[in-house]
Every structure is written in structure tokens, then in C-alpha cells.
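Example (one chain per record):
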Amino acid sequence: MKLHIPRWGVLLFDLFLSAASIVLAHLLRFNFSIAAIDYFYFPEGIFFLLVLRLWGFLEVRTYYGIIFHTSFEDAVRIFVALLWGTLIMGLALNPLMYYLDGHFLFPYSLLIIEFFLTGSLLVSYRAFVKMLYFRYVHKNQEEKKALVFGAGPAGLRVKNLLAQVEGTRYKVAAFIDDDPGLEKKSMQGVDIFPSELLPRLLKTTSIDVLIFSHPDVPPARRQKVLDLCLRHGVKVLNVPPAEHWVDGKLSFRQMREMRIEDLLERAPIELQPDHLHRALAGKVILISGAAGSIGSELVRQLVAFEPERLVLIDQAETPLHELELELRNRLKFDRFEVLIGDVRNESCLRKIFSENRPQIVYHAAAYKHVPMMERHPQEAILANVGGTQLMADLSVEYGVEKFVLVSTDKAVNPTNIMGATKRLAEIYVQSLDRDLRKRGVEHPRFVTTRFGNVLGSNGSVIPLFKKQIEAGGPVTVTHPEITRYFMTIPEACRLVLEASVMGKGGEIYVFDMGRSVKIVDLARKMILLAGLIPGQDIEIRFTGLRPGEKLYEELLASEESTLPTHHEKILVARVREYPFEKVRKGIENLLALYETQNKQWIVSALKALVPSFKSQNSIYEELDKKA
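Predicted structure:
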């Protein structure tokens, strides 16, 4: 049932309360002695002050606000309307009346009392009506208890917002804050507790939801709180950053549930945008694999550095079209070329290089699915090795300044075809860079970046787990001990840009991936985040290692070591060097085997070129035994 109070009704009641406040102000001023009141100015004063109050209400439109949803802004508007009338009476009408008749129209002491009294009555009655309304609306609704993490203005905003949620009645049981200065204090009658008492509150109070009132809680702190809440079955919500609020206002619907990405997030990486801008502004930049997870995020971040033009290559038609729409509509950027092309096709690439003359190349195109490449090694070598060689050679031919290869941690001591082909691609660009320097050729400078799994990328484990949970399970994990390194896509791309700028040529940059994560723990937390119980609501099933898969990923091979750079998250790897001519001829022979479609020959040749490649859980293990 909807309740409604007409605006004229609100205006009339405001005037009635204003008149009552004037009378009450006189009684208070003269200690409730009616005989002491000077009636000489009383009727005229009331009349003129009420006219001023009516003018203020009409001018500021205090009666426009919905009483049932009165806010702090409404209270401010009421006092502004009263202030105008008080100033006119005190600074204009009172002096004029005193000049003409020797009396004040309305004594200043009474004027001050009446101002605060009227303001308090108008705000209080609105708050009272609002309280009655919400008690009436929520009387048959389920009540949920909430904890708000973060007091102050942000926490107060969340508390007031919860009072307006339709369908569920939320009661804020307490505020939690890390600020010791707020301990043993309260806001709007709700106690503020230090964060160390959170475990006790979760145990002793039936909390349904915890809300982070501010998005800037440090990731490590947020993870600890989330782990506590998951153990107690408490739902966790996040207030989005202010720039994501609709029309500058926060609504309950905008609060999103905590995601597994938030659990794995780390402290944000700080870059130096000035030197990135100097290096990238005004450049023609080519990105292969531009429609993929890494490629598309590189495009988004590059836009901020004002390149002359972006040349975007991919063979995935639909994602490329979606990226084009995003650039035009959301990012408001139009200096780009969208080109459907294949990095294995020399005539296509040559035309692109000759027409666009890129100065910087980011090569992110690759086949990356481990089990798929185990079944199709001929396609892996053609795309990951042949495609990289072709892009690198054309970069030399057309005078590219810098070439950046996006590689993977699976290239370290590879146990699968995909990792071995990426390692061979690394070897080629690194040996080519060294050969160019020996011959006195200044450009291009070849730089390799190497990192682990990225959260939410196409084909990664997290989207798979989400689909399995939505389908009711089971959630499939290959092995109870398998671990992986994870990094967010924006974080990985920020480091790629930083490494590409700092690289002088020939380096393989390794990113600090933090600590490795057990995949089975990841699965359990995702099930808990969905409000379900692992092993009870959703089964976790172990399926065995897939072909080419290993338990633990590495970022450096055993014979490699690292050197620090100016950025604490980026290290440069010291790796084995290979003579360029030997590498080039070996790759030519390997690619020539594509025509045979003989997988055993192709993999044998690949193993000869990448000595550290030892197959695991694969049909190609026999080749290692023979060797």
C-alpha cells in the first residue's frame, strides 16, 4: 500500500508549526508568563514573520521532498528557508520599524529562539513521520542484521540507505572501524567497535550481511574480513567507487557481492604515468590478439597515453567488433584501425605493416589452452612460434622501434606443447635482438614479459567454476595439490606497459605474482561466496591432471636467476643464450614439418630446440625416454 501526503498539505502543516513555534518562543522567552508579553508588537510580528516563512518555503520548495524519505539534504533546505526569513526580519524590517516607531517588529532574542525552534520542529516531525512509515512498511518483512565496515560519513550513508531498502528490513547492529579514535563511540545510536572484535561479533550476533562502506579498504585487510565472514556464513557486499554511482547517487542495488577476484586481489601497482606518457604518446602502436583478455585491456590502458593511432589485429570477429564499439562509445577514442587478420599469414601482415608503419608492437596473439595444444601441436608451433617469428621479422623490416612479446610462466621448464612453443618464441626474439646489436642495428628493441594466470581471462579456471556452481556442480579440480599464480588482467597489463618502456632490448621481464594459490581452496571459497556449502550443496570432484599439466607453475627455470629493476614488481631474468642462426634454422625446419602433420616428428623437433621441455602426463613422454 502506497501512502502519499500532498504538497499543499505539507506546506500548510509547516506554516502551522511555524505559527506554533512563534507562540512557543514568546512563552519560553517570558518564562511562560502571559502577562509579561508585550502585545504591542505581537500581532504585527507574527504576521510579517509568517509571511517571510511562507516566502522561504515557496522559494526553497521545502514541501517538495517526500516526507517518508526525508534526508539530511531536506533538513539543510529547511534551515536555509528559515535563515532567509530571519535575516530579512533582523537586518531589514526590524531596523526599519525601529526607525519609524521606536520599537522592534520582532525582538532579536525571540527571533533567534524562534529560528532554532521552528527548524527543530519541522525536521523532527519529518523524521517522526518517516520512522512511523518505515515501521508500517516493514512490519511484515523479514529483518536482517548488518555490520557496516567503516564508520564516518561513508558508514552513515550506508546505514541511511539500508533504511530505505524495499522488500527487506535491515538493521545495522554495529559499525566496525580500524580507527582507534572511534572506539567506544556511536553514530545515530549504533555502537562503533574496533576491528579486532569482529570475530566475537560474528560469533555472538546473528549477522546476515557485512558491508564495506568504502571501496578503498586494503586488499589484505579485506581478505581477512572476508575469510572470517565465509567461515560464519555471512554475506559480504561492497560499495562501488563513487564514479560508478548512477547520477552521482548510491543505491542498494549498486552494491555488489564480493567476488573471488576480490579475494585474490593485491595492493594496487603504482606506475609512473609521466614516463609512460612520454614513451607512448604520439606513437603508432600495433597490438596483435587485440580482442583477447590481455590484448583488449592493453588497448584500454594505451588510450590514456594519447597514442597517434592504435592498430588492432585479431581473427576473432565478434570480440573485435565489441572492442571497436567500446572504444568509440565508452572511451570516446577514434584514432584506431580494426583489422581482421592472422599472425600466421605473411601477406596479410606485410600489408598491415606497410600501410600503418607501427613504431611499437605488442604481440599478444597466441594459442594458450594447454590440453588443446597437446592434441594439436602442429597448430601450436604455427601460431605461437611461426606467428611470433613473422611478427618479429616484419618489425625488423619495417623499422619498428620496440617489440614486446607477451609470454607465460608455462614457458619455464615447460611440460606441455603450449609452454614449449612460448619458450621457443622467447628464445627467437631474444637471440634476434642480440644478433641485431652485434650487426650494429639500433632498432627494433625486443622485450619479453612473462607472468602467470590472469583472473577472468578467456578459458581461465574462475569462469569455469562459476558455470559449474550455477549448474549445481560438481566443481572439477584436476588435483588436490595443484597450485597456480594469479594476477588481475589490469595489473598484468600495467606491468606489461611498464616493462615495455623500461626495456633496452633482449630482456625477459618476470612479474612478481605474489603467492601461489591452491586451486581446490579457490573452488571452496567460490562455493562459499555463492552461499553454498562445499561437499554438501556442491561436490568438488578431482579429475586427474590433464595432458601436459603440472602441479606447480614456475616463473624461473632452475638455471635462471633474476636481477632487480627500478620497479619492485618487475625483475629481469638471466637466461641461457642461443646463437641466432642456429635458432632461426631450427625454427625453419620445425615449421617445415607442419606440412607432414606428423605430431611425433613435430614434437621431437620442438624438444630438440627447447632442451628444458619434458612432457608430463602426456603421450609425448615416450619421446623423452627415447632421447
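Caption: The chain has a mean pLDDT of 81.
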